[in-house]
Amino acid sequence: MSTDRAFPDPTAWPEGVARHVLDEVDSTNSEAARLAPHLTQPTWIMARRQTAARGRRGRVWVSPEGNLAATLVMRPAGEPAQVALRSFVAALALADAMALVTGPGAVISLKWPNDVLLNGGKVAGILLESTGAGTGTGAGVSHLAIGIGVNLIAAPPQEAVEPGAAVPVSVLGETGVRIAPEDFLTYLAAAFARWEGQLVTWGFAPVRNAWLGRAARLGQPVTARTMTETITGTFDTLGEDGSLILKTAAGRRAIPAADVYF
């Protein structure tokens, strides 16, 4: 049974940001790559249905109609490592939008590197893709696509995810709250604009501190699996470059990219 909540007015779309809502597309990140060369401002692309959605490392992303499937394509300044910090901006924006929708009873946390948890289960994921790169030393990316999937009404079954991964959950299943993807996108876009302003104005420090304040399993044992090794240790902190810092039996390790298991 769904719960009727009095949501704030979902019309406060951020200024200077475009929006395209499509009935169907292969994937919103793919559509972002096609549109990027022609865009003159940050643009959100939302699809009611995706026929070839994907997650990190080419994994299939299950997204039935009623869930949110959206991509923000933008042209951020800076080198690739700085541009990639938008994954933390997106995570904080998702947490803010989720809190607004679900109310104070829900437990929302952030799982490194790019998942959002609701009551301990995975409710949303983030996928960053560069749609082009400049040339020369220190060149930045020409466009960045930030793909976001949110289980608003349904989550994939546990057997559809790899062993050890967080249990998939949905907003409706965990809280009884039903919200249209278009309305959730408005909350998300507004929250992203606020956190993007923090990053551009003050650098990564306030984003990092806010992310750590919502980090899942901070100070607890986790396992990080890279392409070449598996590392177990205590989740100590987030590096100033966004890396995962673990305390291990062999010493402190900074891990720039991995999948994390609890």
Short recap of the structure:
The protein is built from six helices and twelve strands. The chain has helices spanning 28-35, 80-83, 86-102, 171-175, 181-202, 204-213; strands at residues 18-25, 43-50, 68-74, 108-111, 115-118, 121-133, 141-150, 221-225, 230-238, 244-248, 251-255, 259-261.
Describe the structure.
It is a single chain. By secondary structure, this protein is an alpha+beta fold. The protein has two domains: 18-213, BirA Bifunctional Protein, domain 2 (2-Layer Sandwich), CATH 3.30.930; 221-261, SH3 type barrels (Roll). The chain has helices at 28-35, 80-83, 86-102, 171-175, 181-202, 204-213; strands at residues 18-25, 43-50, 68-74, 108-111, 115-118, 121-133, 141-150, 221-225, 230-238, 244-248, 251-255, 259-261. The strands form two sheets. It has a seven-stranded mixed sheet with strand order 1-2-3-7-6-5-4, with helices on both faces. Strands 11-10-9-8-12 form a five-stranded antiparallel sheet, with no helix packed on it. It is globular. The relative contact order is 0.16. The mean pLDDT is 90.
Run of helices and strands:
EHEEHHEEEEHHHEEEEE
How much of the sequence lies in strands comes to 25-35%
What portion of residues is helical?
25-40%
Cα separation of the termini: 31 Å
- Low-confidence region ranges: none
- Rg calc: 18 Å
By CATH, the topology of the largest domain is: BirA Bifunctional Protein, domain 2
The biggest beta sheet, please?
Answer: 7 strands, mixed
Named at the architecture level, the CATH assignment of the largest domain is: 2-Layer Sandwich
Q: How many β-strand stretches? A: 12
Overall tally of domains: 2
Corresponding CATH superfamily of the largest domain: Bira Bifunctional Protein, Domain 2
* Secondary-structure class: alpha+beta
